[in-house]
From TrEMBL:
Family: Belongs to the DAMOX/DASOX family.
Residues that, per the record, bind FAD: 43-44, 166
Cofactor: FAD
Amino acids binding D-dopa: 223, 278
Protein's recorded name: D-aspartate oxidase
Source superkingdom: Eukaryota
Subcellular location: Cytoplasm, Cytosol; Peroxisome matrix
Highest classification ranks of the organism: Eukaryota, Metazoa, Chordata, Craniata, Vertebrata
GO MF term list: D-aspartate oxidase activity; FAD binding
Ranges of residues in domain FAD dependent oxidoreductase: 5-324
Keyword Phosphoprotein: no
Amino acid sequence: MAAPKVAVVGAGLIGLSTALCITETCPSCSVTVLSDQFSPNTTSDVAAGILIPHTYPDTPIHVQKQWFKETFSHLFAISNSAEASEAGIHLVSGWQIFKNTPKEQLPFWSDVVLGFRPMSQAELQKFPQHRFGQAFTTLKCDCPPYMLWLEKRLKASGVQIYPRKVADLWELHREYNIVVNCAGIGAHQLVGDKKLFPVRGQVLKVQAPWVKNFIREGDGSTYIYPGIDSVTLGGTREKDNWSLSPDPDTTQDIFDRCCSLEPSLRGAQVVKVKVGLRPSRQCIRMQREVLSRGGVKLPVVHNYGHGSGGFSVHRGTAKDAAHLVGECIAALQGSSSRAKL
């Protein structure tokens, strides 16, 4: 058969990284990215982009660890290259702190990040309300630079990127052989996934160049993540809240919470307030499916539902989705060979 045509629906972090992995693993493919939203207007552009995994209750831990490991290794290599500043990727050290000692003192990802260890009593003096903490070095992706860098890589690989609102995956069946669904929260409507729900997140970007270390409450409720040009302060986790409008009371609450952890932030200037809807599920939907109407078939690969953990696993899940695309291509080539017989 001719070069298979693959459409990736969605141009957030997951869509772009999946399209890139498809071009790397299936170089004979013609890949097109379709989306009605592009950086800097995606959920990914709101995210802090720090590599600290979120746990998916219905996904086996060994799978989550593999996704994280793949992603960390990939980004670590970029951070160690001349591309690092353009890609917005850098190492950042800091502390994850707990008011009470957690049951699990050694998370599954502790041997993937760098230099993971319990905090010393001397370090904990910085946080008098907290009894336990973990110190480590991880990676951070600044957005939009990382998204723009991914777009540049895709274009250099010959990937076409078009603005288009896809209302139904089936509408693509005449133009493409395989469709990859990376629509994020859009999958709620696009494929009617009732297991997908938004978790609203509001963050502040502040000017505080003196803050060099990240600080994160163990439950992820409050965090301070220094980036290249600004520091991200968060956050909120509001399940089933679809509002994209910043709330001034929430802005004040986030600022006060972060200042209680890092009092020097009182002198920081708030540059902008951003809101995103994390596409959340009990597990990421990583699945092959064949849509069929009137004897016509359309292979689909789903890769969405990353919630608040997208940056931590994006490369690992993109590789798995690309592998599923490879399986779809093999099945298409097999059926086209049989048709010739």
